[in-house]
Amino acid sequence: MNKPKLDHIGIAVRSLDAAKVYEALGLKIEHVETVETQKVKTAFLSVGDSNLELLEPTEPDSAVAKFIEKRGEGIHHICLRVDNIEEHLEALKAQGYRLINEAPVPGAHGSRVAFLHPSAGNGVLIELSEAINHPEERSEEGSAEPSR
Ligand code: CO
Question: pLDDT at position 133, please?
Fold first, then answer.
């Protein structure tokens, strides 16, 4: 397994207008997508090799809506990009870490993601993400995928 990389930091916001402060800093929204499984609308701003992911709830019963209700807007999770999500989930389970998703679910950008329980991350909600639509990101890993 390759070493995980920081893919993004997820920030819970009431509205994607929250991107304005980052735009004022010279960052740009590069991708907006509604992720049905998480009931959120997301906006990605790339910052070097990582991203900021703004999360606006689309339903009052979404996890992000509940987070904002309880704790206000703010940093919601960190996401590590991995190359074999199932292997990581199995290894974590075997070591007794509590998972929210025992199996990957669809994430943004056609990725497959899984969340660990915050208790596993000392209060930090950790998301694992395996990119499947980004062959250009994988090529630097020297993967066997043919280049297009
Ligand atoms: Co995320």
Answer: 56
Q: Give the pLDDT band of residue 140 (cuts 50, 70, 90).
A: very low
> How many angstroms is it from 85 CA to the middle of ligand 1?
14
* pLDDT band with cut points at 50, 70 and 90 for residue 147: very low
Alpha-carbon gap, residue 41 to 104, rounded angstroms: 19
* Helix, strand, coil percentages for the chain (3-state, nearest 5): 30, 35, 35
CA 78–ligand 1 middle distance (angstroms): 7
Chain mean pLDDT for the chain = 90
Q: pTM of the entire structure? A: 0.85
Q: What is the 143 CA–ligand 1 centroid distance (Å)?
A: 24
Q: 94 alpha carbon to ligand 1 midpoint, in Å? A: 24
For the beta carbon of residue 8, count every other beta carbon within 10 angstroms.
23
CATH number assigned to the domain with residue range 5-133, chosen from the 4 options 3.40.50.1820, 3.40.430.10, 2.40.10.10, 3.10.180.10: 3.10.180.10
